[in-house]
Amino acid sequence: MTRSILYATAAAVLFPLSAYAQSPDPDALSEVVVTATRLPAIVADTPGARVIDRSTIEQRGAVFAADILHDVPGLSVVRSGAFGGVAQVRMRGATPGKTLVLVDGVPVNDPAEVNGAFDFSGLELSDIERIEVLSGPQSSLWGSDAIGGVIAFTTRDLDGLGADLEAGSFGTVRGRLAAGVSSEQYGFGAWVSHFDTDGVSAADAADGNPEADGFTSTTIGARGRYAFTPGVAVDGSARWTDSEVDLDGYPAPAYALADTLDAQASEQWSGFGRLRLSALGLAHQFSVSASDITREVVSSFPSVFEADRQVFRWQADGSAAGVAFVIGTEREDTEGSLSSGLTEALGTSSAFATARIDATDRLSLTGALRFDDTDDFGSKTTGRVSGAFEAGAGFILSAAYGTGFKAPSISQAVCDFCFSSQPFPVLRPETAEGYEGAIGWGSADGRVAGRLTFYRLNVEDQITYVFDPVTFDSAYVNVAETATDGIELEGRGRLGGGFDLTIAYAWTDARDETTGARLLRVPERSGSATLGWTGERLSGALTVRGESDQDDSGGVRKAFITAHLNGSYALTDKVTLTARIENLADERYQQVLGYGEPGRSGYVGVRLRY
Predict the structure, then answer these.
(1) In terms of CB atoms within 10 Å, which of 123, 136, 251, 605 comes out highest?
(2) How far, in Å, CA of 73 to CA of 492, rounded?
(3) What's residue 9's pLDDT?
(4) CA-CA distance, 451 to 461, in Å (whole number)?
């Protein structure tokens, strides 16, 4: 078996969640490449990696990122309110601030959020071409914030004119208009999308809270590229989102979640510019990226938070003696608001290197090393090694070991929201190590593929907010140690007759090693199954998703199973009708304790492509 054939098979085995690219052979799985590894890699060399492409997003009828990240094993999506409520992701039990989120390579985590976490609630998928998920410590690639892993979104390269319109339950309207031109030398595209709904009560309406909480969001984006010569090119993108959401709070005298007139408005933009050139036998990239967010909360305790981040990066790709490598340096500066209205800044200077070698036709090895020097919390070196071995008979064995760290967030660094009669503790960065092993298999005809992954993630010196009910002292301290053991099972098969089946299951034992308690908002068992069908004009998918009981603040969120149906019909090669039904069985359930999800709801739309 040649290496290229091995790579194609490995991609089929290790990326069962990704859709099949268009190919002359409808039963053949195409080679899939992950790029968030800095050094583009075939999936066999990348344990813990998954890709969701555009065709999968459309097959599932996913509108927002949280809608489809549910189906990635090892990810726990928690959403406080169905439409526009804060949505955060926990990867392999790690707290939300330990997941790094990238849009076109730009870090977009919120430096003004207490843990530095990203809110997925307004991230609409209409302009997203692919989603890459790298589970496990990735600090050797991306530095701080990547203890749990990385989720990278890539926007679409446009060629032609496109329009989408959808309307349905709860007064919901969604629209998108996009246009672009694309050639080998240049490309430019721009789009605008809008989502508006009357919504449902964020506080579970079945508990006597009937007031609907609306949500509206507008996104405008553009991206472009131009090649001056084969060795010199520039590219860049920009994305702006403005959203408003009605919230529910904890009013006196009961201080229990109930209908209120609280609201939040947020505005966020991100973008990058990059120069690519070939010199001295290397492919160089010089880039600058930035993101900015403003959040304003209207409530009995109003607040305004602003934050921004800039990253300046140089990296060079090359190969020598059969080793492909990337080396680079970067500088990151962040600034964020505090509850006092003042601002605080943090910064990190870094150097990194990644290399891959095909030791034999069947064995590939990858290693990464990174040095981060923070302005306030010292320096840290992290690393990662991984390997993949084609064992024959369609089996691929892969494994990885990595370390990670997370510097305190801006709020934690200055002990925002703290009170103490004693000096606040001096915080240390959180550290982590993780290892995993996987067995993948793909049938010789390429119709069936699957993977079973075992992993462990340990986090030490986890930063925790503590409160003394006697003295009322409160502060952030390094006290907690957490550990997560898990199993992730995933597979995909073509069943014949146009049908395909995708399954994903995760068992996650996430616990506080200090107390022995389970970590909050991480279900022990979760899974999904999608049965899809593709015909000449008609296509559709039925997704069933479930989670076990989940420990939450104030109690236990009950287990649930829900189903969603999505379909489309191509009237012509340019006009497609769409329809979807959410919560098909009208199940009453909650993703977060106290926050209700909508009952059965339906939406119809049309897609135009010219």
Answers:
(1) 136
(2) 14
(3) 29
(4) 32
pLDDT tens figures, 5-29: 333 323 332 333 333 333 334 444 4
Backbone angle region of 281, left / alpha / beta, with phi > 0 → left and psi within -120 to 50 → alpha: left
366 sits in which H/E element: strand 363-374
User: What backbone torsions phi and psi does residue 494 show, to the nearest 5 degrees?
Assistant: -90, 125
Q: What are the tokens at 470?
A: 């006697």
- Beta-carbon contacts of 288 under 8 Å, excluding residues fewer than 6 positions away, are 272, 273, 310, 311, 312, 313
Radius of gyration of the chain (CA): 24
In whole angstroms, what is the distance from residue 297 CA to residue 113 CA?
Answer: 13
Q: What is the band of 43 on the pLDDT scale with cuts at 50, 70, 90?
A: low
State whether residue 12 is helix, strand or coil.
helix
The dihedral formed by the CA atoms of 139, 426, 305 and 76, expressed in degrees to the nearest 10: 40
Q: Is 137 helix (H, G, I), strand (E, B) or coil?
A: coil
- Integer Cα distance of 17 and 527 in angstroms: 13
Question: Which amino acid is it at 410?
Answer: I
Q: d(Cα 333, Cα 354) in Å, to the nearest integer? A: 23
Look up residue 369 and give its two tokens.
């090393």
d(CA 162, CA 225): 20
For residues 285 and 315, give the distance between their C-alpha atoms in angstroms, rounded to a whole number.
Answer: 5
Helix H segments across 152-240?
none
* Alpha-carbon gap, residue 412 to 463, rounded angstroms: 8
Token pair of 609 as six digits:
């492509």
> How deeply is 7 buried, as exposed, middle or buried, from its count of CB atoms within 10 A (0-12, 13-18, 19+)?
buried
Element (H, E) at 448: strand 448-467
Is residue 103 within 8 A of residue 309, CB to CB? The reply is no
- Tens of pLDDT, residue by residue over 452-465, are 999 999 999 999 89
Contact by Cβ (8 Å): 69, 37? no
- Check if the beta carbon of residue 442 is closer than 8 Å to that of residue 7: no
Helix (H, G, I), strand (E, B) or coil at 479: strand
Nearest to 441 by CA among 392, 399, 487, 400: 392
Backbone angles phi, psi at 149, to 5 degrees: 150, -170
* Interatomic CA distance for residues 333 and 552, integer angstroms: 34
Helical H segments across 376-503, by residue range: 410-413
Q: Judge contact between 478 and 462, C-beta under 8 A.
A: yes
CA distance 480 to 388: 34
